[in-house]
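Can anyone check this?
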Amino acid sequence: MSIRHIFATALAPALIGLIFLTAPTGGFAAEGEDPEDTYKLLQLFGDVFERVRGDYVEKPSDKELIESAINGMLSSLDPHSTFFDADSFKEMQVQTKGEFGGLGIEVTMENGLVKVVSPIDDTPAFRAGLQPNDLITHLDGEPVLGLTLNEAVEKMRGPVGADITITVVREGEDPFDVTITRAVVKIQSVRSRLEGDIAYIRITQFTEQASNGLTKAMKKLRNEIKDAKDNQTLRGVVLDLRANPGGLLDQAIAVSDAFLEYGEIVSIRSEQHPEDTQRFNARPGDLTNGLPMVVLINGGSASASEIVSGALQDHGRAIIMGTKSFGKGSVQTISPLGEYGAMKMTTARYYTPSGRSIQSVGITPDIDVPQSTIESVEPQSQRRERDLRGALDKDNGEDADDKDGAQADGEEEEQVDYQLTRALDLIRGIRLFQGMTESSTKG
């Protein structure tokens, strides 16, 4: 049976992967529990159900009661286990294709509030300035507290073009409102460009297109640098997984495999069924032929992103740079329930090649680099030789300096990605050191 696991957190709306798996059937009672007690508890459930049907102030729907009971049972386990009715299940299947309608944020639940894992690049939420770890307290003035994650997600969805106002709490700031216009969200999972002679590749989510997109991006960048720089070759790779909330396991494995020649990528282990442990290994062939590599992560890098960064870190294939990742090391399985929808339940944990479980811990970068702004410490007004009375060649180069000054005064300062700048500098330093070592060996 072909099994696909999901690693993305719950969504608003969001991208998640699927496992179509028939759940194993076993006895009612867990090991060490008395089956008779279990039957009594099931009888209790039946008694409460009948009492609600018969005596509640308004006639409830049997379907809604049972679905709510199932959802309550699953959501009480952990933030990622939940029930999908038939409509939600169909919508979720569409989302794995990489296009859906909504705000474009990945969310989870924390202390009864909706917590932003990350906004998706070039979506309404991204353009509105939402950030990882933002807490959403109100939706159109209505409190989130008391809603399940699915209920909150449903409220955030709506017709394309319709506005929604969300109240956001961000660390160090007073609560503020943001109005976002819903739109069709199209995910371009892989983006790439040249940074000099270094390949910069950003994977926004591990959708079905991620692995193929990576291969195409590397081919495109090789051709670009060859055409533009007289047969020059790439000197390194920066893989940007910042604010990437995860996606499909098979895509995380394929992306990891693209940079590894051999060895384990990830293992999946269940305490309930240790005999079902799965290990996934790399096949020979490095897409970059061993080029120096830096992987960028931050607090919005979750799940499948952590599989990739953990595998490359444990094998010493890449230097991990940025800030600690989100810490979602659990595996969810989706089991279809026929015409009624599906259930998503946490069934296992995943482990990096060295045996680390990063659940609630995250991946710690090899080089911790918080995102920062770069400011010039050069004095705005500084006397030079030409400013001195009677200086020689006082007019030499004056036109060029005036031109530079006018350009600087007339342009807005470009936003600098400090973490990316550090990554590029590191790769250039590695290449410089390798070149010096080769020269020394030849000499």
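Reply from J.R.: I decoded it. The two ends are 58 Å apart (CA to CA).
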